[in-house]
Amino acid sequence: MKANKTGIARILAAFTYSADGISAAFRHEAAFRQESLLYVLLLPLLYFLPLPLLYKGLLLAVNTLVLIVELLNSAIESVVDLVSPDYNIYAKRAKDMGSAAVLFSLLLALALWVLAFLDIFFSS
């Protein structure tokens, strides 16, 4: 039986597993690559926007949320494909629900960005 890691070794292992997950998502998931590109493009824009720090924090959080939800959706899809390679109504339902979660996170991000620009252009 493999010994459990503790302390710093556990933290380093967890970091490695997380990096492997990000790498796998980037290699195998086009949606994650697209959302990552958008994230990288919008991140510097936050610095230059004349918005309060709290608003910038919200925009950063919602952009990060999109990536998090996409990772979870990709994980759901991978497991569903593994356990149910043939068509199955429950597999479809699980994948569709994961996709809906991504859609909601994207719509939330869009709404906050629209509000940010409306605030910039229409505030006194």
Largest sheet entry = none
CATH topology label: Helix Hairpins
Radius of gyration (CA) equals: 18 Å
Q: State the name of the first-level CATH class.
A: Mainly Alpha
Series of secondary-structure elements, N-terminal to C-terminal: HHHH
Low-confidence segments: none
Number of helices: 4
How helical, in percent, are the residues? over 70%
N-end to C-end Cα span: 67 Å
**Strand tally, please?**
0
Characterization of the model:
The protein has about 120 residues and is mainly alpha-helical. The protein contains 4 helices and no strands. The chain has helices spanning about 5-30, 30-50, 55-85, 90-120. The longest helix has about 35 residues, at about 90-120. The mean pLDDT is about 95. The radius of gyration is 18 Å and the shape is flat. Helix 1 packs across helix 2 (about 30-50). It has a single domain (about 30-120), classed as Helix Hairpins (Orthogonal Bundle), CATH 1.10.287.3610.
Give the SSE layout.
Layout: H1 7-28, H2 30-48, H3 53-83, H4 89-122
Brief write-up:
The chain has helices at 7-28, 30-48, 53-83, 89-122. It is mainly alpha-helical.
Keywords:
Helix Hairpins; 124 residues
